[in-house]
Amino acid sequence: MPQFDPTAFTPQLFWLAVTFSVLFFAMWRFALPRLSNIMEARQQRIDADLDKAASVKEEAGRVLAEYEQAQAEVRDQAAAVIKQAGDRMAAESTARHEAFRAELAERTRAAEQRIAAAKDEALANIKTVAVEAARAATAKLIGVEAPIEQVRDAVEATARKRS
User: Fold this and answer.
1) Beta-carbon count within 10 A of 150 CB
2) Exposed (0-12), middle (13-18) or buried (19+): which is 155, by Cβ within 10 Å?
3) Cα gap 3→86, rounded to integer Å
């Protein structure tokens, strides 16, 4: 093989240096600037994407804060509506209870009046029956019919003593 021949080392080293210099110059002059531009463009695109992502994240945070604020406002409004409904129902319930109490009091008063009237009527009937029974008993026991006014006065005096 000719490349391993020591007499051909000098021309090989010369052409190696020339080829290396040409390739180095071509890479330095043409390929490296393109690669540098590509890497720079790539870095700029990455930076732009990161800036855009940061702005989108900031906007998302702002939208989230607005959403949470709107949700809190809606929750407060719902609580207010529920409280108003509860207050209105409590007021209606109170009004119904008052109406029921008034009706019940009226019915109780009417019932008490009927009971009092029935009691008075029963007492009047009892006094009449007591007067007639006392008069009949007096007539049977002593054989004399007592005057009705006198028997009535005696029954009323006895009833007053018991009261």
Assistant:
1) 13
2) buried
3) 104
Provide φ and ψ at 8, rounded to 5°: -100, 5
Long-range contact pairs involving 14-22 (C-beta distance under 8 Å, separation at least 24): none
Tokens 């390929």 belong to residue? 31
Is residue 118 a part of any domain in this protein?
yes
pTM over 0.70: no
- Helices and strands per DSSP (H, E), number in the chain: 3, 0
**Quick one: tokens of 161?**
């003593």
Residues 107-143: tens digit of each pLDDT: 999 999 999 999 888 877 888 888 888 888 888 888 8
AA identity, residue 149 = E
Q: In degrees, to the nearest 5, what angle opens at C-alpha 139 toward C-alphas 154 and 150?
A: 25
* The residue type at 62: R
Residue 4 falls within a domain, yes or no?
A: no
Q: Residue 81 corresponds to which amino acid?
A: V
Q: Is the pLDDT at 82 greater than 90, yes or no?
A: yes
Domain that holds residue 154: 10-162
Domain count, the chain: 1
Instruction: Return the SS3 of 85.
Output: helix
Residue 71 lies in a domain: yes
Question: Angle formed by the axes of helices 148-162 and 32-142, to 10°?
Answer: 140
